[in-house]
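Inputs:
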Amino acid sequence: AQSVTQPDIHITVSEGASLELRCNYSYGATPYLFWYVQSPGQGLQLLLKYFSGDTLVQGIKGFEAEFKRSQSSFNLRKPSVHWSDAAEYFCAVGPTNDYKLSFGAGTTVTVRA
Amino acid sequence: GAVVSQHPSRVICKSGTSVKIECRSLDFQATTMFWYRQFPKQSLMLMATSNEGSKATYEQGVEKDKFLINHASLTLSTLTVTSAHPEDSSFYICSARDRGVGGNQPQHFGDGTRLSIL
């Protein structure tokens, strides 16, 4: 069975500082990996996705993620955070044959001035 | 591109009322749509998978008679919460999977519906 672990429940970072969100997955085959961001009271927006090829993936809003098969990880990074990056971030893996995704528990990012 | 519209964004109604939530893919065709429920400060819980032209597949523990799903076209799925009670109050989110070949099509999410049952 597939599963996703986001070890950090809450991260506080200063504006302008770098950010890294951890994601570890368990999946029986080559995974498709996603990072989504959710602002309060909103749906989820796709930041980036990994299917194959280059293990460093560039996304929107200045985010990138690196797929490391040996570590079963897909960590999300941003070199310099902005106050607008305060949100909930979800890592997801999939799909199964019926296209379902498994989501991590999420990491809340707080940005301090 | 890949916009999913969910309506309404917020519903407040009395106990016993049935509430319908619509999920539309605006610029792509979605053979598969998903309905999630999200409790405060928690992740998304998949309720059901909605396939165009066929019956929805419900996750274990989700009452199919309580949460009716209809996927009548390639761009529209509806979730009806029947005889809603306060415990059904939650944030409901739909997603749609682009009608592409292969498993690498991401899910695109609506903005969610905040359902409050008084």
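Chain A is about 0% helix and 50% strand. Flag for discussion at group meeting.
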